[in-house]
Design goal:
Helix content is 19%, strand content 17%. With 194 residues, it is α/β, with parallel strands linked by helices.
């Protein structure tokens, strides 16, 4: 296993991020099979053909729902998840300091704070080219459910309010620094879809 930031791992100029939200299910068939697709967390079970499985949150209740990804899928997992027994191709350190006042990416770490989408966007920022285009599917972020019909166990509106604001600031910052981010399916974030 190799540290992500000490590796030659790179993403192309265009990628798709598939998150596990239920509104993304209608768009799974729109994700090109040849695309550089990043399945976030539980979305590894979605009907897409990911090239990367990205997981940051080792404490989430769904963190152990999947079996190993299919052969050929590159596993990019947090060190915390690896310490709990998951095998990976690349590991990364997390910086839990992502706040509404300090939300920019930092070299050498991914600042996830419980957000698979935020971590995957930073993966694209750090390991993709300048002016990368990222399409996002299934980033509902409304606390209702997942693409397979299962439901979020512990929805807390106060948690989602802060959670949303950090992600909104991150998306705005990334867009302001050259990344094109298109939300293909609807999202609860207060951001322009494209």
């Amino acid at each position: 296993m190799t540290d992500l930031f000490e590796s030659g791992f790179a993403l192309p100029a265009e990628a798709w991020i598939v998150c596990p939200g239920e509104r993304g299910r209608a768009y799974h068939g729109h994700v090109p099979r040849s695309a550089a697709t990043i399945a976030v967390n539980y979305a590894i079970s979605a009907n897409v053909e990911p090239k990367v499985h990205f997981v940051a949150d080792s404490d989430a209740p769904w963190a152990w729902w999947w079996s190993d990804p299919p052969a050929g899928v590159t596993r990019v997992y947090s060190r915390q998840l690896i310490e709990r027994g998951q095998r990976a191709d690349y590991s990364f350190a997390q910086d839990p300091g992502l706040t509404c006042e300090d939300y920019q990416p930092r070299p050498g770490v991914l600042r996830c704070n419980g957000s698979g989408l935020g971590g995957a966007l930073q993966l694209c920022w750090h390991r993709g080219p300048a002016n990368m285009t990222v399409y996002v599917v299934g980033a509902d972020l409304d606390g209702t459910g997942y693409f397979d019909g299962s439901h979020v166990r512990e929805y807390r509106s106060d948690h989602f309010h802060v959670f949303h604001r950090r992600l909104e600031l991150l998306v705005s910052w990334l867009r302001g620094h050259g990344m094109t981010i298109v939300f293909v399916s609807s999202t609860a974030l207060a951001v322009e879809r494209s």
